[in-house]
Amino acid sequence: MSKLRVAIFCGGLSSEHEISCISASGVLAAIDRSRFEPILIGIAKSGAWVRLESGADFVPGQAGLPSVPERSSDLFISGDGIYDSKGSSLKVDLAFPLLHGPYGEDGTIQGLFEMAGIAYVGSGVLASAVAMDKTFAKSIYQNAGLKVATGISVHQRDWQRAAEKLSAEIAALGFPVFVKPARGGSSRGTSKVNSAAQIPAAIAAAHSEDPRALVEVAIKGREIECAVLEIDGVATASMLGEIRVHPPHEFYDFDAKYLDGSTTFDLPANLSAALTEEIRAAAVTAFTALGCEGLARVDFFVTEDSKVIINEVNTMPGFTPKSVFPMLWLAMGKSYPDLITTLCESALHRPRSVVR
């Protein structure tokens, strides 16, 4: 039986470029090569699509993390597949878009794959777009019966003409609040605001990532994560893990996540059986309500009085062997290579998501 050709996409135009490259390196090293033939495709920060032979082709990027090298595009995509600069088809059977954040996790590249007729791992166009935009996703969570943090959205154009009024609305929420890009990831552009004087800088930081910012009251509670995986077409929740952030960080920001080891991960989370099942069910509810497919990591807060509040759904979470999603499933008995195989098989056996 011939091997299936899997195009592993990494890099991209978002501020999570380097994290995507780390995820791709992990998948490239672990994918079952007896069944799959991986092709590594990097999207440079300029937007160029380049063929990479291996993770050794990455160059140092931000904070020394791997990045796709800048050079002229040597690949292109058309209505019937992906081709090299000589016009030869790569004959890709499946795309694995390990792209985090805008232009990768937000439905844009998923739409491109749909138009080219290429099967792909993960959620479709609409679910990817809605999950990425926290301001739109919150109403869907609420309609599904899930609790969300109180907050408001602040568009850049509105801020420019009514900053004082909007600052007053933010202050009325009560401090502290968190200000974040509506469609950001890895906590880029996210700030904890403890006073009115800090609002303008926090809004500016969020707007540097996205013209729409989300402001939410800070939830005092534990950070609990659940991985949802489609197994034989059924959305299945993993066991739960708890993120603990240590000083000097006040919250789970980019440095705490990736650079200085200021977090620990409790697996399983120390929760009652009843609360554990409530959160696992809520994770599947969120996954289903958004119309997700394949995989997602669902993040929650649990307050001191045991209220469960959904934070967000990540449709393409970090995917190194030490990332939360694979670790949660490893604890359930599914190895990293097996997880990759499950995702590839699931993607190959489901219809494309755009309505025709």
* Structural class by secondary-structure content: alpha+beta
The end-to-end span amounts to 32 Å
Total strands: 18
Mean pLDDT across all residues, rounded? 92
Cα radius of gyration in angstroms:
20 Å
Q: What's the CATH architecture name of the largest domain?
A: 2-Layer Sandwich
Strand order of the largest sheet: 3-2-1-8-9
| CATH class category of the largest domain | Alpha Beta
Q: What name does the CATH topology of the largest domain carry?
A: D-amino Acid Aminotransferase, Chain A, domain 1
Number of domains: 3
Q: Which series of helices and strands comes N to C?
A: EHEEEEEEEHEHHEHEEHEEEHEHEEHH
Throw out a few tags for this protein.
five-stranded mixed beta sheet, five-stranded antiparallel beta sheet, alpha+beta, D-amino Acid Aminotransferase, Chain A, domain 1, single chain, Rossmann fold, 356 residues, Dna Ligase, domain 1, 3 domains
Question: How does the SSE layout of this entry go?
Answer:
Blueprint: E1 4-11, H1 17-30, E2 36-43, E3 49-52, E4 59-60, E5 66-67, E6 75-78, E7 81-84, E8 94-97, H2 108-116, E9 119-120, H3 125-132, H4 134-143, E10 151-155, H5 156-173, E11 177-181, E12 191-193, H6 199-207, E13 212-217, E14 221-231, E15 234-245, H7 254-258, E16 263-266, H8 273-290, E17 295-303, E18 308-314, H9 324-330, H10 336-348
Parallel strand pairs: 1-2, 1-8, 8-9
Antiparallel strand pairs: 2-3, 4-5, 6-7, 10-13, 11-12, 11-13, 14-15, 14-17, 15-16, 17-18
